[in-house]
Amino acid sequence: MMIVVLQSSASLMSVIGAPIVIIGGLGLIFGLILAIASKVFEVKLDPRVEQIIAALPGANCGACGKAGCAGYADAIVHEGADICACAPGGPAAAALIAKIMGKEAGAMDRKVAVIHCSSGGHNNTKWKYAYQGIESCKSAVNIADGPNLCTWGCVGFNDCYNACVFDAISIDDQGLRHIDPDKCTACGACVTACPRKLIMLIPQNQHVHILCSSKAKNPLAKQLCGTEKPCIGCGLCSRKCPVQAITVENNLARIDYSKCIDCGLCATVCPTKAIGDIKAGKRKKAEIVAEKCIGCTICAKICPTKAISGELKQTHVVDKDACIGCEQCVAKCPKKAIELV
Amino acid sequence: MGYIGELFVMAMTAIFIQNFVLSRFLGLCPYLGVSKKLDSAFGMGMAVIFVMTLASAFTFLIYKYLLIPYNMIYLQTIAFILTIAALVQFVEMVIQKNAPALYKSLGVYLPLITTNCAVLGVAILNTKAIRTDGITAYNFLDAVLNGFFSGVGFTFVLLAMAGIRERLEFVDMPKSMRGMPIGLILAGIMALAFYGFMGFKI
Amino acid sequence: MKYYIKLSLILLIFCAVASGILAYVNSLTEPVIKDRKAKEEVATRSELIPDADFMEGKMADGTAYFVATSKATGDTLGYTFIAAKTGYSSKVQTMVGVDKNMTVLKIKVIDQAETPGLGANCTQDWFLKQFENRQATDLVVDKDGGTVKSMAGATITTRCIATSIAEQIAMLKVAIGGAE
Amino acid sequence: MSFVKELSKGIIKENPIFVIVLGMCPTLAVTSSVQNGIGMGLAATFVLICSNIIISLIKNITPEKIRIPIYITVIAAFVSIVDMAMAAYVPGLHKSLGLFIPLIVVNCIILGRAEAFASKNNMLASLADGIGMGLGFTLSLVVVAAIREILGAGTFAGIAVMPKTYEPMLVAILAPGAFITLGFLMALMNMMKEKK
Amino acid sequence: MKDKYIVSSAPHVHDKTTIPMVMWNVVIALIPALVFAVYYWGLRALVLTLLGAISAVVTEAAIQKLRKVPVSVSDGSAFLTGLLLAYNIHAGAPLWLPIAGSVFAIAIGKQVFGGLGTNPVNPALLGRAFLLASWPTLMTAGWVKPRTGTLSGISNVDDIALNLQSVSPKAYELVTGATPLKVVQSLRDSSFVASINSSATEGVDIANRIFTNITEMNSLKNLFWGNIGGCIGEVSAFALLLGAAYLLYKNIIEWRIPLFYVGTVFVLSFLFGPIKGSGYSMMLPFFHIFSGGLMLGAFFMATDYTTTPLTKNGRIVFAIGCGLLTMVIRLVGGYPEGVSYSILFMNVMTPLIDKFTVPKAFGRIKK
Amino acid sequence: MRLRTFPGGVHPHDEKHYSASSPITLAPLPAKVTIHVSQHIGSPSSPVVAVGDEVKTGQLIAEASGFVSLNQHASISGKVTAIDRFPHPCGTSSLAIQITGDGEDKWVELADEADYMNLSANEMKSRIAAAGICGMGGAGFPTNVKLSPPEDKPIDTVILNGVECEPFLTSDYRLMMEHADEIISGLKLIMKTVNARQGIIGIEANKPDAIALMEKKLKGEANLEVVGLKLRYPQGAEKQLIYAATRRKVPAGGLPMAVGVVVQNVGTAFAVYEAIRYRKPLIDRIISITGEGIKKPSNLKARIGTAFSELVEFCGGASMEIGKLISGGPMMGFALPSLDASMGKGSSGLLLFGKKAARLLDEKSCLRCARCVDVCPMNLLPSLIASAVKYKDLDKAVEAGLNDCMKCGSCSYVCPAQIRLVQWIDTGKIRYAEAQRAKK
């Protein structure tokens, strides 16, 4: 038995001996060469770049201002670019990148695109002439100031729709464009696509927008606008705004979103309905829970419409008619004594 | 005909008649993957020519002076692929260090080549190929040149394909056809077009 | 340095183990392959010239041919040999049986890798049958004005088979003549 | 992930050919007949399973720098074994698959799975992945081969299936037919994906 | 909107030519060839042609319906593709052949890329290449003799025949059973020449006699009028020239491609056309120009807008490439005729040619 | 005479028969004019009058602001009634000065310099500048700027552009026929200002009588010559004209002065003559009111700033339902949304098209027929540029010649697929400019 095994193992050795030596030798030589070469020809490559590329969504949208995702990754590592610049990736990507870079993700306000014009549909535009040519806003506005009477308003050839790679812009049966804030990644493609500069990026927690860009004076503005809902620059909103967030310039009102408290008051006073309020009618009013209220008057002070009244150390009361549902008081109440109903 | 004539036949065969991609089905992954832009196709093509030539040389030497004398032809697969892998990695490192510009335009494609079956394919085919007389096996020079010409053939169709695909960027193609499907159908059309070279008597 | 040696050694071990295993497998399969090949050749030979014994001879270029002698009588029945030539995309090998007058008795393609559907059809019966009872001089393809019917779209393969047989018969004649 | 899940994903959801688009060369080259397709598929499956197992076992002892050479060595070893075994026991198939058996080494599926899956997962999962991917690969080969063989030769696995009057469309089993068939199958996959 | 003035970008005037006009004009230009074909081969030629054209139109309409895009078969491009494809089939082909070719040509040659103007290669030629690869026997066997002539175009075939039949049946069979280009291809093959006659010198002599005969005036006349074997549309050089002249007059095709294509063939066939033993002859270039599909190719296929280079220099390169390849295939290739493959191949090269022949803008200095 | 030409180009029907035979008629004094502060290439002029000011005909109302700019003058006497945005002859609206006339046409004082030919070059140029003359072919480059090349670019040739290759237009033709002497004097003056050796008047072959007249007038003038040019559009484009007349190629992106040439329109030459001799500011010009839609196609001498509607009325009004109004020629002119706009210094014509002629066919997909390539006078690949722009590949577009295009419209004219090539290229130019700005 032993002998057989020995014999067979001897013959086995003779069979596999040479191959082992030769191929093993090859392996040894290659291994050595590669190992040495990897030292001799070493080039420092930052592994973080690759990690960041993996963390990015790979849409190559260019919202960060770099040449695609790889370029952005390179810029983060080598040029110290802002890690929050990736709009499509949002905070999730920023957090991942931050981890890779060993930094904290900054608080990134999610933004959303808003169209500052209520016109643009086939039934909602007044035409200056019958346009024949390329169906692109950018091309059309160069011919006789664009085919629509209002030279500030939407041309309606859907450059923004075509520019959106996230499917966030839709067109309704009236031919009007709508932006789905959930799908919008604030990449800014539509902003640059619109030759009339009607689209702007606005913090997502804001719901009140002036849906007009017309700088025309009063009677003219109405004549030009296809939906007859232009801003006529009357200044009513500006006067009514509890926080002075609206300014009127060149017959056009604009909201300063750093001041705006999203109360929607302006939308209710606008005579031409040029201010859109997504939350209109859905705003809840404040109500003070009497048990919790300690009567600190903070809410009364903060309320822009002075709808809260009450003496110090007394339970405060909300004037339901005056309350505009801006929720300022809710955030500020130290005892969480204000509820929305 | 002479040796030059023989080489001409070899070149014609490798480039047109028995093209690696269109007729032998070798190297399809990079062919379909890196044929979207002419610039990158050119870089890839050059890298493939370079590696195929080098690999042909090395594997031929190993085959002839190591495997045959020791009667170990069954080890050719493992020996060849090891050689190619090491070679590609080595070349990549050298270029990256010594010619960063070249690396940027060509080196990025190198890792893709290790698993390009065209390289291993040409190495194996070289060991089996017979010269035009029908009897003698390839010598060292034959093998190297065959590697080179095969690479040229690969690059040639890669460039032609990239040219067409660049053009197709500017048309409204059915969405489901974009990308791989159209690449494959184009390859089929090119293969049909290359049938004209069938049966050459040079 | 130690690191590199470690790397190399690991690679060495892998290579060594792999090649060792392969060598072992090869030692098992190689005889099987050889055996099978040999058996197949014998079988093919007997198929071409039945009921015969075969005796190996060598032609001028070193390739083998076999003299077939009748098992019953011991008379020389004919010869078999392998004709090989590069066809369209591969080396096409045909085993041929000829009688004493060098008339083809039967042929069989034993190795080819021609284009499927075209050249690869050379293994079909109708194609091989037509070679029977031909002299070397008749082995001309129809496209060249001969009578060997070429396969559709595969003249080259047809031509390769026909000429390789004709050439090999010529060699055989020399070899036999030399022997005599 | 469960064993069955790993096993089944390769067949449709992550089909190596139609979805991940790996290993095109043999898919096109050997699918001129169904037998060849099955043979190639099984050979590749065997290698895939074995290499997945081994690589998942050795994943901890392979230094990063020579990871790829080692994986390739392992794969090449199995390929050679398959090569020799086929030559010995199924010589006909070995013959018609020809060059593409040694080329299994560089089939992107195998190295791809080794890199992407086996080097990160345990042995059991890798085994399941290998079987699933291998079956997916084989299945795809059979589909492509069936179309090509039926159109191009009028047969399925060698058995005549088309009416006698059918003139085989030779191009289907030639190179252009291979490309176009696979192209259309992929377009079909895309269309199905779009519909979803 | 209706009562408003139209405003558009300049220019405000437009040439009258439209795509349908171009396409249908090409169809008109192709009609003489069909008339000749019907004269020589009877109604079957017409039936095959119509089958090809109609199935192309039906395929295009069906695919466009499926894709839910506007059906645009009235522009005539699909009809033209089907017509050209049928022109590349011989009159003896089975009726389903042009249908199969047209379906392939339209579906894979054109519609998968998005339709008119997007196809990288000429769909009709692709259809032909597909048919040739799929059913080589049907495409190359069963040529039909023209009504008054012979397949090879040798007018005094009987004289030769009497002579040949006794001396060399092989040569006789060749002369009476093949198209002119096939005859020449065979005569170029030394192994065939050797097999013509048991005596080698006699064989060469017979080959030379056939060769001279086929390239002399009488045969050329047959070639010119189309009194030879061939495909439906390529047969009559005269009819095709008539159509080409119409297209040139209508400014639908441009002179560069036909001129350089035919010119290249002319030069190359003069230099390399002769077979062993025959001298140079001014007739030889004309033989090569009038035989096979060259006229059809040079004037109707290689001038296909979509698949040829945009640049003027590129078109010259393209045409020379076509001519070169045609002659290479005819003289050393595996096929007797190389027009369709050469154009197909150059179609594939077109984007590259375009890329490397971008013209220098007026006033720009080349870098 | 051998006709000269340039490579490329198209042959649109010249359609000059509408108005070619009608002599220049003086249009009635308009009741109101609106004079735009930007009628030229360069920075807009700055108004020097205020609403309510009384002005005389020829009085400066806006002055050049910057080197490349222009003086504007009142073209009638009256009161400035508005300075606001008004429709511009190129279709847009822009700042303009509106003058309501008093019907008296009181002029500022003019002169008559007997020895005007011998004034110094600088004096001539300053008079040209003062008169507010710009190129009257359409582009409107301030003439005094064009005539002041830098020292290192000596000018040896002045070419007068009497080609008028745009179909329909006949204003230059009529001017040549009726004021040949003044034009020749203008040419000589221009040659003096730039110290040029030779002067060439280029006229297209469809105006044989103008060629003959000019040749007769120039007999004996060794350094002046008339060059007959083939009927081909855009023969009158500056670079093409220079090439046809002198075989010199203006480098891409360069000005004619780079090859020692200055090109001026015949109308400009006429204005230069009047400005230098009489110190008369440019307040009127010849304009062709033509096309199938006008009752009486005419060539009018009209005051700058006259509303198009008044001119149309004077010509008998529309003869059919009008589909399109074009200010300028049909190849490069601007379609107008209404007749409210007023004519400017570059307004060579106003065309009225009927409904049928106005309609454009729908754009089809490109056939790659390369007709656009064959006709492009700049040797570009228009279809490639257009599709590159369409699929947002600006690099390719630039490679194919985006920035070399002069928008002559030849490609769009011939395109059998009716692709708006020029508009695509225009869009591309805008996108390219935007991209360049973004890069900075």
Give a short synopsis of this structure.
Chain A has helices at 2-40, 47-55, 68-79, 90-101, 137-140, 159-163, 189-193, 218-224, 236-240, 265-269, 298-302, 328-332; strands at residues 111-115, 130-132, 169-171, 177-179, 199-203, 208-210, 246-249, 252-255, 275-277, 286-288, 308-309, 317-318, 338-340. Chain A is α+β, with helices and mostly antiparallel strands and 341 residues long.
Question: What would you say this structure looks like, in words?
Answer:
The complex is a heterohexamer of chains A (341), B (202), C (180), D (196), E (367) and F (440). Chain C is an alpha+beta fold. Chain C is built from 3 helices and 5 strands. A 5-stranded antiparallel β-sheet of chain C has the order 1-2-3-4-5. In chain C, strand 4 and strand 5 (104-111) form a beta hairpin. The longest helix of chain C is centred in the first third of the chain and has 47 residues, at 2-48. Helices cover 67% and strands 2% of the residues of chain D. Chain D is built from 8 helices and 2 strands, in the order H-H-H-H-H-H-H-E-E-H. A two-stranded antiparallel ribbon of chain D has the order 1-2. In chain D, helix 3 (34-58) packs parallel to helix 6 (108-118) and helix 4 (67-89) packs across helix 6. Chains E and F meet through strand 1 and helix 1 of E and strand 15, strand 16, helix 13 and helix 14 of F. Strand 2 of chain A pairs parallel with strand 1 of chain E.
Task: For this entry, give a set of tags.
heterohexamer; A: 341 residues; alpha+beta; two-stranded antiparallel ribbon; flat; B: 202 residues; 9 helices
